[in-house]
Amino acid sequence: MPDYTLFQEIPLTQPVTPLLDQVTLPENMRKLDINQLPQLANELREFLLYSVGQTGGHFGAGLGVVELTVALHYAFNTPDDRLVWDVGHQAYPHKILTGRRKQMHTIRQYNGLAAFPKRTESEFDTFGVGHSSTSISAALGMAIAAREQGLDRHVAAIIGDGAMTAGMAFEALSHAAHVDANMLVILNDNEMSISENVGGFATYLAKILSSKAYTSMREGSKKVLSKLPKAWELARKTEEHFKGMVSPSTLFEEMGFHYIGPIDGHDVQSLVNTLNNIKGLSGPQFLHVITKKGKRFAPAEADPIGYHAITKFEKPTTKPEKSETETPESHLASKASRPKYSNIFGQWLCDMAALDQRLMGITPAMREGSDLIQFSKDYPERYFDVAIAEQHAVTLAAGMACDGLKPVVAIYSTFLQRGYDQLIHDVAVQNLDVLFAIDRAGLVGEDGPTHHGTLDLSFLRCVPGMIIMAPADENETRQMLYTGYQHQGPAAVRYPRGTGPNIEIQQEMTALPIGQAEKRLSGKKVALLAFGSMVSPAQEIAEKHGYGLINMRFVKPLDQKAIFEAAKEYDLLVTLEENTVSGGAGSGISELLMQEAILKPVLHLGLPDAWVDQGSPQQLLRDCGLDIEGIEASIERYLAKLTAR
Q1: In whole angstroms, how far apart are CA 90 and each of 55, 129, 309, 464, 608?
Q2: What are phi and psi of 149, to 5 degrees?
Q3: What is the pTM of this model?
Q4: Do residues 462 and 307 touch, judged by C-beta distance below 8 A?
Q5: Per-residue pLDDT reduced to its tens digit, 493-539
Q6: With contact defined as beta carbons under 8 Å apart, do 605 and 576 qualify?
Q7: Rounded Cα distance, 249 and 242, in Å
Q8: Which of 11-15, 229-233, 369-373, 583-587 has the lowest mean pLDDT?
Q9: Secondary structure (3-state) at 409
Q10: Cα 528–chain centre separation
């Protein structure tokens, strides 16, 4: 029998896993007896703890779906049957069971496994995942494709870890009921947010509701009673009333799904039996599974948010550092530690709220990531976590601004893409007073292309009326946030992940002149026009080679005077930004020069017109030619071209 005692610490030596060693692919697992699955799940959980302890990464959600992952691959004929994972944090056990166990030590690393399911990585990864709440829509599309091609294929969407809070999930649920396609939606409810009806009776009910006897009776009754509309309506309502007494089925039944559950998501044998029963049903099915995030790892069970992701462990007594991506330390951290940009924002938000009671803080499920921790405690009535609903977050801010409040939307660059329509139509068109604090701008590192903030300058710059700022350091971040807050109209401050160049932060807040750059160095021949995070390397290069340097500060509006003067004084202008070159800040400079008929060589350095993979920011900047050596080489090559003319 498997040992179900809680794991107290991360194993630093690879555990002994005799059953897991046999499972190189799901087809091997399906040869096991169902009674062996609990032991397999226990070994999988222990290996997951060991693996993430070696590399760092997401594991709280993965620990919670170990039994569910085993059951899914055991009951379904994957990869021919389609499993569509939502919120890729859940997918580490899936990767281990689908031929990638020996590569798990490379996850989230340069040239290693991706942090999330990725179609080019494995045929078992049926849909790429990065942002949440996409699984039901994608699975429905696959179910329709199977129907149209006459394929006898099962399709299941596994949604959880908060993803059901997004409107997109409910849009897909609403549509699925009106499409003649067979699909299964599995709600991995790991926060007990819908129901706590877990136990013997609930599990027994789930077995009944998924059994062939019940479904045959249900379908047979429908055929007979459908000829007697009043009788059928009475029978239907009686069934819904009975099920509604013991499970939260009414919502999903009303949307057209056959609801089953809630069922214990850690009883692997019961899960397999239920899934086998469901496989024979037609139409949209909804299985509600209750799991515990961080299951059987005591620290993660006690603190599921803090242990959503961890850094790698060095020794058993080492307390894991919380992942910077998900849970940065509060801005109240020791003065000896360098504050992250998110910490600077968190401190500013509290300071500004103390001065202006109109300030409202909004986040789409990123309280820890964007560091609204202290603000949520000090100003709970002015703090709004709208869950994974970026579109709603932006329009909520617009509504607040309409009636005199001063909303601040704290959002990652990659997630703001989801609220772009609302930013344009609901905020910018109406010229509403909303400040966007855009975190994780540029290359964020190990989470890869779905989480890099590489496009925001391009998609914001074309929006009329937007003020866009990019701070070069910690103090500029604080002052630009204040500047954007004081500005009457939409404004955005975009700052990178991690720490800055360690510049002293002035507590007094001073609004910067809108659209005014900072001329840092005078020089000869070449002028570097740098935005945000590129100012620090540009300064080192300018000092080394005697170039001029302008900290542009504002992406929109640009400092026209500074640009025109640089065009007159220097032979070459070099723009530097941690954003895609296409349509970015540098493009704005060239557009301005062309409008004024100023013919000046301009070299645009930024991120390429390609998806940048995962790796450390230093590795990725090097690959993109945005480290110091790469920038110097690009300038030298361009100067050589000018000389050769």
Answers
A1: 16, 11, 11, 40, 30
A2: -95, 0
A3: 0.77
A4: no
A5: 999 999 999 999 999 999 999 999 999 999 999 999 999 999 999 99
A6: yes
A7: 10
A8: 229-233
A9: strand
A10: 33
Catalytic residue among 100, 296, 418, 478: 418
Q: Which of 642, 324, 604 is nearest to 457 (CA)?
A: 604
Rounded to whole angstroms, the Cα distance separating 553 from 516 reads 7
At 305 the pLDDT is 64
Q: What pLDDT score was predicted for residue 236? A: 61
Position with higher pLDDT, 164 vs 198: 164
CB 417 within 8 A of CB 459: yes
% of the chain residues with pLDDT over 70:
83
Is 293 marked active-site? yes
**Euclidean distance between CA atoms 503 and 553, whole angstroms:** 16
SS3 145: helix
Q: What is the pLDDT of residues 61-105, one digit of tens each?
A: 788 899 999 999 999 999 999 999 987 778 999 999 999 999 989
Close Cβ partners of 220 (under 8 Å, ≥ 6 residues apart): none
DSSP β-ladder status, 467-469 and 435-439: unpaired
Intra-chain end-to-end CA distance of the chain, in Å: 78
What pLDDT does residue 324 have? Answer: 41
Q: Which of 37-46, 57-66, 352-361, 422-431 has the lowest mean pLDDT?
A: 57-66
Query: Active-site residue among 82, 108, 293, 461?
Result: 293
Residues in the chain: 645
Residues 6+ apart with CB under 8 A from 140: 157, 172, 175, 176, 179, 181, 183
Q: Which of 117-121, 316-320, 357-361 has the lowest mean pLDDT?
A: 316-320
User: Taking 60 as the threshold, does the pLDDT of residue 373 lie above it?
Assistant: yes
Partnered with residue 156 across adjacent β-strands are 83, 184
What is the spatial distance between Cα 341 and Cα 471, in angstroms, rounded to a whole number? 10
* Residue 322 pLDDT > 70: no
Closest CA to 154 of 24, 23, 284: 284
DSSP category for residue 5: S
Tell me how far apart the alpha carbons of residues 609 and 620 are, in angstroms, rounded to a whole number.
14
Q: Give the span between the Cα atoms of 469 and 207, in whole angstroms.
A: 57
| Percent of the chain residues past pLDDT 90, beyond the cut | 59
**Is it the case that residue 334 has pLDDT exceeding 50?**
no
DSSP string computed for 290-345: E--TTTTBHHHHH-TTTTSEEPPPSSTTPPPPBPTTT-PPPTTS-TTSPPBHHHHH
Sheet with 572-580: strands ordered across = 518-521, 548-551, 526-530, 572-580, 602-607
Say whether the peptide bond before residue 79 is cis (omega within 30 degrees of 0). Answer: yes
Which residues lie closer than 8 Å to 507 by C-beta, 6 or more apart? 351
Q: Which of 390, 446, 474, 578 is catalytic?
A: 390
The residue whose two tokens read 């890869």 is: 448
- In which residue are the tokens 């989230």 written? 108
Residue type, 231: A
How far CA 562 is from CA of 467, 521, 525, 535, 593, in Å, comes to 18, 13, 16, 16, 12
